[in-house]
C-alpha cells in the first residue's frame, strides 16, 4: 500500500515537474516587451506590497490600452516572493530567462543580491526610491538605476526639513535626533548620511533598530520616552510603521515631531491609527496621493472601467499605488527612449533598455503628456547620475488623508556627491571594476 | 528480481566492510554520482542550476550536518541557522583579512571556526537534554543574529550590514558560471557525504548512536558522554559551517544576517525530521522536499489552473502553496513517521521480493 502510494506520488510529481520545466520555454515570445514583476502580496509586508504591485501592473495595462510602446505590446508575469531575499532571487532566475526588460524588486535586500547578478545577465535594475544609495554613480554601477531618489536623498531632505522648522540648520546644534529603523540593509542605508550631517551641524544621532517584522517595539519606545529626543525619524516598512505610530501614541510622543521616509508615508501605515497619527509627516518621493492627476483619470477610464483593474478601484491614486505606477512608467519610458536609438516599434533587450534609462529626459511637457503634471518634476539621467532627480517634499497626515505641507527640497549635492563617489569607488575597488570614462559613456 | 543480493559472497573483511555491501546499491550510487557530474550539467538550464540545484546541494550539506547531531547523537538543535551564519561570516573574514587565502581554505576555515563555536554552544548539552537543549541552542541563534547585526567588525563595517564576495576561484579555476558553481558545490557535497557515511559506521558514530539511544547505558559500557556529545557538536557544526559559507559565497554572493534567520534553523530541523532521522539518504530527501516542493508548487499551480482555464492570482498561489506544503508535511509524517528515508528503505525491501511477494 505504502509502496503503491509512493509510486503514485512520484508519478504525479514527475508529470507536474516536467510541466513546470517545459512551461517557461512556451512563454518566451519575441513580439512583446516582457516585464517581470516581482511582488509580495502575502507575508508581513503584503499590505504595502499589494498596492505597489497593483499600480505597477495597472500601468503596464494602461500602456497596452493606449497602444503599447510605439506599437509594441507589453507582456508581464508576476512572481511572489513575500519579501524573502532567497525567494526573490529565485523569482529573478525564473523570469530572466523569458527575456526580461528590467527588474524592480521593491526590496533593498534583493537589490543587494541582484546587484552582483545584473551585470552578468545584462538586465537593468530599476530601484525607484530604494536600493543602494551609492549606485547613483552610473560609472561604477552600470546596471543600477535608483531613479527619483535614494535613501541618502531622503535623509538629507529630512535634516533640511528639521533645520527649517527650527529656523536654520545651525539651530540643530545640540539637538537630539533618533532614527527608528528597520534592522535590515533598507533601514541602515540612511545612517552614513545622517552621521555626516550630525558632524556638520552638531546634533546627536541616536540609532534605534527594530527587528523584522517590527511588531515588537515596546523597548524602543521606552528608550524614546526616557531619552526624549527632539525628533524621531522613522525608517520602517509594512506593519512596523503603524506599530511605531501606535507606540508613539501610547508613550505620548508628539506625532508632529516624527518624520518618516517615503516608505513610511502611505495609507496602510496610518489608516489603522487614524486620528492617532494626525500631524505625522513623511517625506515623499516627489508624489503623494494623487487622485486628481490625469494619469489616474486615464487609468480609471481606460483600465478599471473595462473591468481590467488589478486591485480595488478606490485604491487607485493612493500613495503606494502611485509609486508602483511611477516605477512602471520610468521603466516604460526607458524602453521608449531606447527605441528612439535602436528602432521604433521593436522589442528592446535589457542592454538596449539600459541605454534608454541612462539617457532618460522627461521634461515638464513629456510628463504632462503622460499625465504626470504636478506629480513629478523633470527627470534627466546621465552616465554619472543614474538617479535623475534629487527633489522631494513633505506631506502630513490630517487624520483622513495626506496633504502636502512643505515646498520642494533639493538634496544638497555638496554633501551627497562626495559620499556617493567615495562609497562607489570603494565598491569598485572591492569588485575590481574600472569606472567608465566620459568617452565610454557616450557610446 | 533485479535487486537481489543472491550469489554475492563476501570472502574478505574488506568486502564485508564496504559502504555499499550490495553490488546493485553500489552501482546505483556510483551511477547517480556520475549522472550528477556528467549528465546534469548537460541537461539542466541556468534556472535549474541557480534556483534549484545549487540551493538543494548546499542545504543537503547543512541537513547532513544537522542529521549527524540530531539524528545520530540525539541532541536537538535549533541553532543550525546560526552555525551557517558563523561559517559564512568566518569564511568571509578569512577571505578579506588574510591576504591570498585560497577559496577552499577559507571555506574550510569557516567550517573549523564554526566547529569551535559549536563545541562552546554544545556545552549545555552535557547538563540538559531534549526540549531544554533545543531552547539552549536557540541562544546561539539569537546571539549570532545580534553579533552579525551589531558588531561592525564582522561585516567589515559595511554601512548597510550587507557583505558580498565575488570573483570566486579555486586552484586557478574561475567559478563564475552556474555549471561551475554547481560542480563546485557537488564536489563538496560528495566528499562530505562519504565522510559522514564513514563516520557513522566508525566507532565515533557508534558512540553517538549509543548516546542517542540511552546515555546512561552508554556511559556504563565505557563511552564518555562529554567526548561523544561535544564531538558530535563539533563535526555537525563543521558541516553546517561549510554549508553556510557555500550558501553565502556561491549561492547568494551577497548576504545579510536575515539569510540565516531562525526560519533557516527550523527549516533545517524539518528537513531532517521529514527526511529521516539518523539517515544519510534522509538528509537528501528532506532537503529536496523542503527546497524544491514550494518552488514546484508555485509554478505547477498556475500551470495546473490554466489547464482547467482558471487563472489563479499571485497571492492565491502563494496561499495555496503554504496550505498544500503544510498538508504534505502532515501527510508524510502520518504515513511514515520515520521519514522519507524509511519509505525508501521499504521500497527497497519490496523490490527484493518483487515480483513474487509472500
Number of helices of chain B: 14
What would the average pLDDT of chain B be, to the nearest integer?
89
The outline of chain B comes out as globular
Low-confidence parts of chain B: none
Strand residue percentage of chain A: 5-15%
Average pLDDT of chain A, rounded to a whole number, is 86
Count of helical stretches of chain A? 16
Helix content of chain B: over 70%
User: And the CATH topology of the largest domain in chain A?
Assistant: Rossmann fold
String of helices and strands of chain B: HHHHHHEEEHHHHEHHHH
What's a quick, concise take on this entry?
The complex is a heterodimer of chains A (443) and B (358). By secondary structure, chain A is of the alpha/beta class. Chain A has helices at residues 2-27, 46-65, 85-96, 108-121, 151-166, 185-188, 191-201, 218-227, 239-251, 267-270, 294-304, 319-342, 350-358, 364-370, 413-431, 438-442; strands at 33-39, 74-80, 125-126, 144-145, 176-182, 204-210, 231-235, 258-260, 281-284, 361-362, 379-380, 391-397, 402-404, 409-410.
Topology (SSEs and partners):
The complex is a heterodimer of chains A (443) and B (358).
Chain A: H1 2-27, E1 33-39, H2 46-65, E2 74-80, H3 85-96, H4 108-121, E3 125-126, E4 144-145, H5 151-166, E5 176-182, H6 185-188, H7 191-201, E6 204-210, H8 218-227, E7 231-235, H9 239-251, E8 258-260, H10 267-270, E9 281-284, H11 294-304, H12 319-342, H13 350-358, E10 361-362, H14 364-370, E11 379-380, E12 391-397, E13 402-404, E14 409-410, H15 413-431, H16 438-442
Parallel strand pairs in A: 1-2, 3-4, 5-6, 5-7, 7-8, 8-9
Antiparallel strand pairs in A: 9-12, 10-11, 12-13, 12-14
Helix pairs in contact in A: 2-11, 2-12, 3-4, 5-7, 8-9, 12-13
Chain B: H1 13-16, H2 23-43, H3 46-72, H4 80-97, H5 103-122, H6 131-150, E1 163-164, E2 169-170, E3 173-174, H7 178-201, H8 203-213, H9 215-220, H10 225-252, E4 254-255, H11 262-275, H12 280-307, H13 314-335, H14 340-353
Antiparallel strand pairs in B: 1-4, 2-3
Helix pairs in contact in B: 2-7, 3-7, 3-10, 3-11, 3-12, 4-5, 4-6, 4-10, 5-10, 7-8, 8-10, 11-12, 12-13
